[in-house]
Structures are given as C-alpha cells and as structure tokens.
Design brief:
There is one protein chain. By secondary structure, the protein is α/β, with parallel strands linked by helices. The protein has two domains: 2-115, 3-Layer(aba) Sandwich (Rossmann fold); 126-222, Orthogonal Bundle (Arc Repressor Mutant, subunit A), CATH 1.10.10. The protein contains eight helices and 14 strands. The protein has helices at residues 10-22, 33-42, 59-68, 84-93, 105-117, 152-162, 171-178, 189-204, and strands at residues 2-6, 26-30, 47-50, 53-54, 57-58, 75-79, 97-100, 126-129, 132-135, 140-143, 146-148, 169-170, 208-213, 217-222. The strands form four sheets. The protein has a five-stranded parallel sheet, sandwiched between helices. Helix 6 packs across helix 8 (189-204). The longest helix has 16 residues, at 189-204. It is elongated. The model has no long low-confidence stretch (mean pLDDT 88).
C-alpha cells in the first residue's frame, strides 16, 4: 500500500517512514502542502497522512480542497492540535480519522489498516489464495497455517498481487506500490523481488504461481493442477 505523508518535521517524518516501512507500507514524504497537493494530483495513493500545522498553509483547508476535487482518498490527520473543536473541525472538513501527537507507530499502523478496510478501501483483513493466506493486521504470510519468512518488500508485492488474483498487474503499478519516491529503484529491482518471492513460496509449498506477462507485468493464481485450481 502506498501512503502520502505531509509533515514539516523531518525527524517525525523519518520515524513515521521507518515505522510504517517496517509494517509493509511504501511512504512518500512531503514537507509542504504544495508538494503534497501536486503529488496527490499525479500519483494514486491509498491513504494520506496529514499534519495540520504546515508551513505553507492550514491542513484543514487542504482537506476541504481535496474533497472539493472529488478525491476520496482516505485522510488520517496526525497533529498536536488536541482540542475538541480542532477534532470536530478536521473531521467535518472531510478527514476520515484524527490521531493526536505524540502517538505510537503500532497505533498509527493499526489506524491506517482500519481506514483501508472500510467500504471502498483496499485492505481486507485476511486474504486467501489456495493454501496461501495473508494477514494485513499481522503483516504475515502463511502456507497451510505455517508462517513464511518474507522481507517487507516481498510481503508488499505478495499482498498487492493477492488483492488482484487472476489479473495481470502492470510492472509500473507494482513498482509504485512497493517502492516510495525516495527509494533507489534499479532497472531489475522488481524482477529480483519477484524471483525471491517465487522461490520462497515454492519452498514453503504454496499452491500458487506468480506468472510473468512479458513486457507487461505479473499475475498470481492458484497453481495449475492443484486441488485449489478452479475447475
């Protein structure tokens, strides 16, 4: 899942990026509302994390502008403004949730997952394909109930493919989901992650296949000939 973070405090942004990265989220950080607005207009994000006290404007006005543009991307406000009026104003402006600083990363991650599970969101709690299961809450993959050791990027790739099982996903879409703008992505980086994921799934006995659509992207489906393949 790809998140946009609008936060003017570099230290706080770094802590959030590291913490949510460990939870499997790809996060792009912007220090101004102007940069955040431009990114939101050009890149599809699954969730926006927004500090209200930005140097070039007020976050509440940003929320209202986003909603006026008919953009329905979930917005989670993260701010030190703790007053009741502040919370009511932020939510009434169109924010989907409101988290007061300071907070712990596990709670932030849980709130992100909760927002993405809402109707119209993209994050179910448990995904299942054949004997392979992915838990978004625990951020863990299991085969026949046994955990599979995967890196954060391998987990992110697997989750994205499982949510689109049976469909070819463009390479560019996968790179956007797995890597943040700050990541250095070499030409064959995604192929390397796919290769490692295939090997680990095969070694664990997962009855799924990650197909390559040459020149296009990848698709996950139940393995041919398995008991889980649709008749």
């Amino acid at each position: 899942m790809r998140l946009l973070l609008a936060e003017d405090n570099a230290r706080v942004a770094a802590l959030i990026a590291e913490g949510l990265g460990d939870e499997g989220f790809a996060l792009d950080w912007f220090g101004t509302l102007g940069d955040a607005r431009h990114a939101l207009e050009t890149i599809r994000y699954d969730l926006v994390l927004l500090d209200l006290g930005m140097p070039d404007g007020d976050g509440v006005a940003f929320v209202r502008a986003v909603r006026r543009s008919q953009n329905v991307t979930p917005i989670l406000v993260i701010t030190a403004r703790s007053g009741l009026d502040d919370r009511v104003t932020g939510l009434d402006a169109g924010a989907d949730d409101y988290l007061i600083k300071p907070f712990e990363i596990p709670e932030l991650a849980a709130r992100c997952r909760a927002l993405l599970r809402r109707p119209g969101g993209c994050l179910g709690t448990i995904l299942t394909v054949a004997n392979l299961e992915f838990s978004s809450a625990e951020h863990e993959a299991r085969v026949a109930g046994h955990p599979v050791r995967l890196s954060p990027r391998e987990l992110a790739l697997l989750e994205y493919l499982m949510r689109r099982v049976g469909r070819v996903v463009a390479k560019a879409s996968l790179e956007e989901a797995v890597y943040s703008l700050a990541s250095e992505v070499t030409p064959n980086a995604l192929e390397a992650v796919v290769s490692r994921l295939r090997r680990k799934l095969a070694d664990s006995g997962a009855a799924v296949t990650v197909h390559t659509a040459y020149g296009i992207g990848y698709m996950l489906s139940p393995a041919a000939g398995s008991a889980y393949e649709p008749a």
